[in-house]
Design a protein that fits this description.
Blueprint (H helix, E strand, L loop, with lengths): L3 E5 L4 H11 L3 E5 L2 H7 L6 E5 L1 E2 L2 E2 L1 H10 L4 E5 L3 H10 L3 E3 L1 H13 L1
Parallel strand pairs: 1-2, 1-3, 3-6, 6-7
Antiparallel strand pairs: 4-5
Helix pairs in contact: 1-5
């Protein structure tokens, strides 16, 4: 059964991440806003990749709520900014990464 990945991204990075997930034969869900992410989290993804700042706000409260509701869910924060990656980690992401390493990291997680 294919793993389900939710990409919570509003940037051009989503295309690269989607391609990496598809190469790993994962089912890909995409949310470009917090509202979409909250709805898509109900589809029980195996992995969530988060961008911190979305058009409708800061993702940290939703990351924290997701971590509290699903403590074993694999979550990766992606940002080119070190401070943002630290905030994502503090909010509950298991791992954080810069945008280009995230593609490799997602592929590694999906292959395990």
């Amino acid at each position: 059964m294919a793993k389900k990945v939710l990409l919570v991204c509003s940037s051009t990075m989503v295309d690269l991440l989607r391609a990496a997930c598809q190469r790993a034969h994962a089912e890909v869900l995409i949310a470009g806003t917090l509202a979409e992410a909250a709805h898509m989290l109900m589809q029980s993804p195996d992995l969530v990749v988060w961008e911190l700042m979305l058009p409708d706000g800061d993702a940290r409260p939703l990351i924290q709520a997701t971590r509290n509701a699903k403590p074993l869910l694999e979550m990766v924060g992606v940002s080119g900014d070190t401070d943002e990656r630290l905030m994502q980690f503090g909010a509950g992401c298991n791992r954080t990464s810069g945008p280009f390493h995230a593609i490799t990291l997602v592929a590694e997680i999906l292959s395990s």
